[in-house]
UniProtKB/TrEMBL annotation:
<dbReference type="InterPro" id="IPR048716">
    <property type="entry name" value="Phosphatase-like_N"/>
</dbReference>
<dbReference type="Pfam" id="PF21234">
    <property type="entry name" value="Phosphatase-like_N"/>
</dbReference>
<dbReference type="GO" id="GO:0046685">
    <property type="term" value="P:response to arsenic-containing substance"/>
</dbReference>
<dbReference type="InterPro" id="IPR036196">
    <property type="entry name" value="Ptyr_pPase_sf"/>
</dbReference>
<dbReference type="Pfam" id="PF01451">
    <property type="entry name" value="LMWPc"/>
</dbReference>
<keyword id="KW-0059">Arsenical resistance</keyword>
<protein>
    <submittedName>
        <fullName>Protein-tyrosine-phosphatase</fullName>
    </submittedName>
</protein>
<feature type="domain" description="Phosphotyrosine protein phosphatase I">
    <location>
        <begin position="88"/>
        <end position="213"/>
    </location>
</feature>
<dbReference type="InterPro" id="IPR023485">
    <property type="entry name" value="Ptyr_pPase"/>
</dbReference>
Amino acid sequence: MTDISAHLQHEITLDQQLALHTAATRLADEFDGIYSAETIERFLHTSYDQFATAASIPNYLPLLAERFARQRLRALARVEGHHRDGRPVVLFLCTHNAGRSQMALGFFTHLSGEHAIAWSGGSEPGIEINPAAIAAMAERGIDISEEFPKPWTDEVVCAADVVVTMGCGDACPVFPGTRYENWNVEDPAGLDLVGVRPIRDELERRVRRLLDELNVTTTW
């Protein structure tokens, strides 16, 4: 078993190291024949370091790292042609990945079901999802409480067919050959549930329109 702690930029407990080894094993099984153990561990290590400085719950770090590494590896597999299933991929970006982009992701995933893929990210990821955004989406029967703010990475952007930006300005990535849309939607940061509801409803309208443009069958 390799010494994962030696490859990380931040201190790590024994329990966290064991959890990361378990995560690496799961990812190796999932991407067997596509990526080597070394590549998987590199993605896992860099994903862990992305969250280590800001996360408020250290014991949750290995799970966050595994989830983010899995998303990045799936994106890379699409970019490199290892996995193309014909489903459109949409990436929602905002500044903190804590409100607008997470609500848009929630609507897109719920409405599209298995017919499309959506990811989200932020130019300056926050620490947690906006509680008012979680509550507003719960009113629509959509649970985004298990989501987490995360940065965007090159492979995720390159794998997207459409990149939707909301407020991240020049910090948002631009790659040739990708369709970009900028949605001028108010930032829900600092607003209560009443203030977030109109933003939620506007995002739903825009997501439904995008799904229609992509010819994706919606579930409701």
